[in-house]
Design goal:
The protein folds into four domains: 59 residues, no CATH class; 190 residues, 3-hydroxy-3-methylglutaryl-coenzyme A Reductase, Chain A, domain 2, CATH 3.90.770.10; 103 residues, Hydroxymethylglutaryl-CoA reductase, class I/II, NAD/NADP-binding domain (Alpha-Beta Plaits, 2-Layer Sandwich); 49 residues, Helicase, Ruva Protein, domain 3, CATH 1.10.8. The protein is built from 18 helices and ten strands. The two termini are 40 Å apart. Strand 1 and strand 2 form a beta hairpin. The chain has a four-stranded antiparallel sheet with strand order 3-8-10-9. It is an alpha+beta fold. Helix 10 packs across helix 11, helix 10 crosses helix 15 and helix 16 packs across helix 17.
Length: 422
């Protein structure tokens, strides 16, 4: 089927007409179109306001991780993710952390950076000095853009300026340091950056091009720590195995990529559930991991004098409870209520704890039975369902594949065919 994607004024069509057009052009069956059009817990009207050209929604399973104690407070943690074993692993790791008091978390506050790029500056270092000399004027202009944020204790708090060398020559970069309060802050920071750009052009004699927030939120860090008793983990041999696994990640970026992905399994699952900007979180985490010029783990694992395992995590966590999907998506609003956090900082702290727990669970599995044993038990159910198993058949097919160590679609289909013949 040939598709012509040039559809005039597609955005002006109603929800139903858009889907009708897509179905007409792609051959979707009535059942497939119905599945796509289902927006789940998000009303169609709300979906149509959130993004453009809406034709439906996609639902991700929402689970609750239990056992989490963060800074002495217990939490039920909503996690939205399609990958098996993640919620169970996080819950198990949190349970092991409880013996030593759970997770201790601190933070550096909800501070973001807005950058203004200035090009064509003839005296970049002199211009940098002039920018800093106009600090108060620039900050006032920035804060005039959001009096509500300022009244709540937030707003532009400081100004930096730097000269960078690029393939297009030196550039002056002015940086607003903004306390965004309970918002993630992208809209507020971008508005401030655009507002101060004319002043910066006047002061430097250059041209202001980009005016945008930085997702390397290295002034918005969470720092998490937890002690895991060696007996809870399975003995000192397991502790040593986790430390060795960390050493591998610290030395090799190929391993480190997967190490940090395990952390983000937990962080992003909570972020999706609570309506956060997961692209900003991923960008911030991985750029922070590479800030020294080499890609490194976001966690550190050590053995203390008692032979117990000590884990620490430090990473940016740009999240918010004001604006965005956290306020417009009904499921995200309910998830925040389940979690019970009252501020963006508290949300960030819980997400950091989940990241550390998830990393511990993955490393412990890798250092002992291997990652596949527990993961594949759960994955086998998905394979069985995709092959057409329903009801009690799902568990029968899944258990047989796991026993045979052949968790594959073709094998699930064969087992299912055999069972149906009987």
């Amino acid at each position: 089927m040939v598709v012509d994607s040039a559809i005039p004024e597609f955005y002006k069509l109603s929800f139903e007409k858009r889907m009708e057009k897509v179905r007409e052009m792609t051959g979707l069956t009535e059942e497939e179109a119905k599945a796509v059009s289902n927006t789940g817990g998000l009303p169609r009207q709300a979906a149509d306001m959130m993004i453009e050209n809406v034709v439906g929604g996609i639902t991700i399973p929402l689970g609750i991780a239990v056992n989490f104690r963060v800074n002495g407070k217990d939490y039920l943690v909503p996690m939205a993710i399609e990958e098996p074993s993640v919620v169970a692993a996080a819950s198990n790791a949190a349970k092991m952390a409880r013996a030593k008091g759970g997770f201790t978390v601190s933070n550096t506050g909800p501070v973001m950076i807005g950058q203004v790029q200035l090009t064509g500056v003839t005296d970049p270092f002199g211009a940098r000095t002039r920018v800093l000399a106009h600090r108060e004027r620039i900050l006032k202009t920035a804060n005039d853009q959001d009096p509500m944020l300022v009244s709540l204790g937030g707003g532009a708090k400081d100004l930096n300026a730097k000269v960078i060398d690029t393939v297009k020559g030196p550039m002056v970069i002015a940086e607003l340091i903004v306390n965004t309060g309970d918002a993630m802050g992208a809209n507020a920071v971008n508005t401030m950056a655009e507002a101060v750009a004319p002043i910066l052009e006047e002061v430097t004699g250059g041209k202001a091009l980009l005016k945008i927030i930085s997702n390397l939120a290295d002034r918005r860090l969470v720092r998490v720590s937890a002690v895991f008793e060696k007996t809870a983990l399975g003995g000192e041999k397991v502790v040593d195995g986790v430390v060795q696994a960390y050493a591998f990640a610290e030395a090799d970026p190929y391993r480190c990529s997967t190490h940090n992905k395990g952390i983000m399994n937990g962080v992003i699952a909570v972020a999706i559930a609570c309506g956060q900007d997961i692209r900003a979180l991923e960008a911030g985490a991985h750029s922070y991991a590479a800030r020294t010029g080499a890609y490194k783990p976001l966690t550190v694992w050590e053995k203390n004098g008692d032979g117990d395992l000590v884990g620490t995590l430090e990473m940016p966590m740009a999240v918010g409870l004001v604006g965005g999907a956290a306020k417009t998506h009904p499921v995200a609003k309910a998830a925040v209520k389940i979690l019970g956090v009252k501020t963006a900082v508290e949300l960030a702290e819980v997400m950091g704890a989940v990241g550390l727990a998830q990393n511990l669970a993955a490393l412990r599995a890798l250092a002992t039975e291997g990652i596949q044993r527990g993961h594949m038990k759960l994955h086998a159910r998905n394979i069985a369902i995709s092959a057409g198993a329903t009801g009690a058949m799902v568990e029968v097919v899944a258990q047989r594949m796991v026993k045979e160590r052949k968790v594959r679609y073709d094998r699930a289909s064969e087992i299912l065919a055999e069972l149906r013949k009987k």
